[in-house]
From TrEMBL, chains A, B:
Domain of life: Bacteria
Species classification: Bacteria, Pseudomonadati, Pseudomonadota, Alphaproteobacteria, Rhodobacterales
Protein name: DNA-binding transcriptional regulator LsrR, DeoR family
GO molecular function: carbohydrate binding; DNA binding
Native source organism of the sequence: Paracoccus homiensis
Keyword Transferase: no
Pfam families referenced in this protein's UniProt entry, alphabetically: Sugar-bind
Residue ranges constituting the Sugar-binding domain according to the UniProt record: 64-318
DNA sequence: CCTGCCGATGGGCAAATACTCGATCAAGGG
DNA sequence: CCCTTGATCGAGTATTTGCCCATCGGCAGG
């Protein structure tokens, strides 16, 4: 028999294991354990606690969700987020929006259930659109929905990916569309535009938003800004040269998540991104193409929450 | 994405998994889970319970003791015991007595801690001796220690393996040695002996014992009865022919744990083994050599408790 | 359309569990 | 030798958890 087998510490750990077994495996109460081990109830409690703190008991969750929760916690910690949700990816279609849309919708729904008035501000994009489509109809006249950016395409038509109106209609809440185009022609025009009272009011609402949901756009040739015609090839190249990797509500940022000081951003009419830590700004984004954009947004603290897919979360944690 | 991925049942299980993860992995309270998932505390409780009942959570104990507790439960169930304790074996010395002696001593100690008067009856043997040696000195004048059998060797000297005196001395309790030799010359002499008041009194104490600790003896050429000179080669052979596989306090029994009706047993002067189920009769025994004797004793219900080693418990469960 | 049934929900309460605090005790240093 | 230090214990208390039950809402059948 090994030396030290019966030292006090070993005995104590043995008892902890015994108590842990009786508690977690056999389902005894701590009272029963105390009786069986011949100690006080408090000591039994301490033994069970020790079994946990000494990592003698290992819990495993046999469910795909478990892995997602692990990833979510890791992402949250790595990037200092206040909230993070990871949704299982279908290996055959890892970039499908349905999953994260459902998750985002339930997060949104959770906030909407509140009786207090909440200001919900939205960006644009396919993720947002899909999210709102997952939301059940509810009656929430106490809340306010506000758009963080204009929805006018360059040809003057409304963007099909603006979800504000649809959300407001679904939940029966008043809504504030963003009364400006996406881009001004120059910064002077922008100054003029922003001096309007309606604009100032809308921006103020955005700043006070109790929940902001935004998409994240990548900055390659598949970029929403480019595909939707806001940025032409030449400007796209210019932005790429300036280090742009992503955009949130049209604000273009670099790989460190810093909003780039450039001609384009000086024309962006969208509401400024909230910087206060306690204003939840949640990004809804997934997919290989958006990965650098998502990582940069997290690094730069442009958002403090993320809803993404399992595959994307894994890539965010790689290296 | 798989069909049925978002059916109510799947969503519910997902939530259960989520709740289970938050509870067991992240250490949240059910209240916090309720808040995070946006449900009532009761629902959160139901989700956690579901995660358990649906076997989503698996607990594992990383400690040698855990395996012992599993074995103990299995042995207890297989043989219908009221108590069973299994002690880790050292693979290099699986039959060492120290481990089970410590376990037996703490079981004994647990009983001795009681303020009510307890009658402790003891058999003989190396296991018992070792057990008492592991017992710390205590002051228990309220209890009574009584021997279940004589300790006289055939040459008239006292057996060195009688633990009664030592136990009584260690715990400061009155003790009753067994006032007869191990064997009478014949059943007539036994009848005479047992008619003595002191003997009847001692046997009555044994019958009322609140805890009986006994050893188990094998019946081959290494048998304690033989080694200690109570049974010679010829009689040993005779008993083996009658099917004897083991003995407890000198009562010899067969493979089914039935006390054999034979000349030898008719000379045994020891107190009868208690049959009442509620009298704890705990065997302290381990080792490959004793295995058939232990198994038979358990099968026949000669004891209702067992303290043994991991290796022995495994063998008891084999097949 | 109404009605009764079934499962889910949340309030309330008792049991179980975790934490705080002062008392006690053994080990080690002055 | 005594004192300090740190650990452990049990009592008491606050928190958490499990369960019962009245109620609600959806749904199938009349």
């Amino acid at each position: 028999m090994t030396t030290g087998r019966f030292t006090p510490e070993a005995t104590r750990l043995d008892d902890a294991a015994r108590a842990g077994w009786l508690y977690y495996v056999a389902g005894n109460t701590q009272d029963e354990i105390a009786r069986k081990l011949g100690v006080s109830r408090q000591s039994a409690q301490r033994l069970v606690a020790m079994a946990v703190s000494e990592k003698l008991v290992k819990v495993r969750l046999d469910h795909p969700i478990a892995r997602c929760m692990d990833l979510a916690l890791s992402v949250q910690q790595k990037y200092g987020l206040t909230q993070c949700e990871v949704v299982p990816s279908d290996p055959e279609a890892p970039d499908l929006l349905t999953g994260i849309a459902i998750a985002a919708a339930s997060e949104l729904e959770r906030v909407l259930k509140s009786d207090e008035r909440k200001i919900i501000s939205l960006g644009t994009g396919r993720s947002l659109k899909a999210t709102v489509e997952q939301l059940p109809r509810m009656s929430c006249p106490q809340h306010i929905v506000v758009s963080r950016l204009g929805n006018m395409m360059s040809d003057g038509s409304a963007s099909p990916f603006n979800a504000t109106i649809q959300l407001a209609e679904r939940i029966g809440a008043p809504h504030y569309p963003y009364p400006l185009p996406v881009l001004a022609h120059d910064s002077d025009e922008l100054t003029t535009m922003k001096s309007q009272e309606a604009v100032r009011n809308t921006i103020a609402l955005c700043e006070r938003a109790d929940l902001s949901l935004v998409g994240i756009g990548q900055m390659d040739m598949t970029a929403p800004l480019h595909v939707d015609g806001f940025v032409d090839n030449a400007e796209m190249q210019e932005l790429a040269d300036a280090g742009a990797v992503g955009e949130i509500t049209s604000w273009v940022y670099d790989a460190q998540g810093r909003i780039i000081d450039c001609a384009f951003n000086r024309r962006v009419a969208s509401a400024p991104l909230p910087r206060a830590e306690d204003r939840p700004v949640v990004a809804i984004a997934s997919g290989e193409a958006k990965l650098p954009a998502i990582r940069a947004a997290l690094l730069g603290g442009l958002v403090n929450g993320l809803i993404t897919s399992e595959a994307t979360a894994e890539r965010l944690l790689a290296r």
